[in-house]
Amino acid sequence: MHNVDLAIIGGGTAGISAGLRALEMGLSAVILERGQEIGGAAGIRLSGGAFHLALGDMRLDHDPMLAHVNKVTNQEIAPAIAEMIANRSKSSIAWLQKQGVDLVPQGNEFGYVTIHPRGPSVPGRGFNRKAAPDKAMRTWHFRFVEQGGAIYYGARAKSLKAAPQGKGWIVVASSPEPEGLRVQAQSVILADGGFQANPKLLEKYLGPRAGKSALRAMTTASGDGLMMALEQGGYVAGEGRGVYGHILHRNAITDENFLPYPMFDALCLTSPVVDAKGKLFEHGAKDGPELTYKMLMSSDPAGYTIIMDNATWMGPAANGGGYHPAVNPAIEQKGGRVDSAPTIAEVARKAGMGEKELTAAVERHNATAKAKLGSGPYYAVPIAAGVTFTFPGIAVNDKAEVLRKGGGAIPGLYAAGCATGGIHGRSGGGGYLGGLGIALITGMLAAEGAAARKKA
Ligand SMILES: Cc1cc2nc3c(=O)[nH]c(=O)nc-3n(C[C@H](O)[C@H](O)[C@H](O)COP(=O)(O)OP(=O)(O)OC[C@H]3O[C@@H](n4cnc5c(N)ncnc54)[C@H](O)[C@@H]3O)c2cc1C
Asked: Model's pTM, two decimal places?
């Protein structure tokens, strides 16, 4: 049995931020990481490494940051949490820079920072080992161990129980050792990345068919932390808020070569999206994550098809923006289905839809949408909602303490990163604050809570 001040379940951005901060504050700490290798199965290893809040620069001062977060979340998140985020973003980024990463600003209205130099993502759940986000996570794991922390790989935390005589917690994890790995700790941080890889939990907390979607993330996010929190009296916050996700080719459900890119988000906002029969999906979504959520909540999250005219196929569909691969030709190169024909009736037949339905869908789209479907040939591509992470998750307060259903916080139990719920707003027209930024802030916050607990 290991005896430490802090046990952290999950060595992703939230877990390693917590771990490094905990060591800095004089705690002894252990990270249990389900992934088998240095760097674990952390989501940042697949990512472009953009640290932002509400798609804004985390180096903003308190007042503009608070205004920005409130605007993007439509003030739906708890005011104390919005305040905490605004208070801590700038200092968290400054701290991150001290962890040996080069952060460079990128432009949009508010700008944001990315770990430099990021590289193109590789298809599937493989890591681009030359890219800075992947290197950063491996470096942080090394640093944690060099500074006295311990990381166990291939250690999936399975149970969390209160230790006898109020002496914190006992975490049991699977490990190559037959008796498993047992850690006793005064405080525990649940930082396992959430439950998006668990279809049953998606159906329970998102929508009855949500489990039929594509997983646009690592497969390790099974919701173990959530189950532990619920068992200890915690609850789920953020139900009805949706997900952060994107629209992928339907093959992404069964073939990881089709994720995480190319994405169909922008194309789906201008070209008609139809259901399996060819009926127009009048989604009214303003962005990709909102459309992802609407598809997820429908009766068939993987049953839609986008119809593109020739100008779209040869234009926006062939332009991935330089950084991400374009739909055309990547989908066909990967062997994904694309039906094309000179007329709508023919493309309907090829794609297995009703001719009448698809013709009516195009007429309806052209009568109501700003961008009309122009001349053929037409392209029909099957798509699916792809979930990166969920906005519902473990309910926490502005100290990252896990909240008890009956009121108050559970002493010594914290949650951070994508394991938490209710921190992001509603998906659609905003709401998404940023996965990495929130993981960094809440991970550090939870570690500081554990340090204060030790001192008390
Ligand atoms: C393609 C892609 C691009 C992205 N780009 C960006 C971006 O540019 N900017 C941004 O802000 N966000 C981005 N994201 C989202 C971002 O990666 C996540 O929000 C972030 O990594 C979440 O960090 P986390 O620490 O909460 O979870 P994770 O990084 O998922 O870490 C959780 C860890 O817990 C481990 N684990 C799970 N269960 C257990 C268990 N029972 N016991 C022990 N360990 C366990 C897992 O193996 C994993 O290593 C992107 C995601 C994807 C997929």
From this structure: 0.97
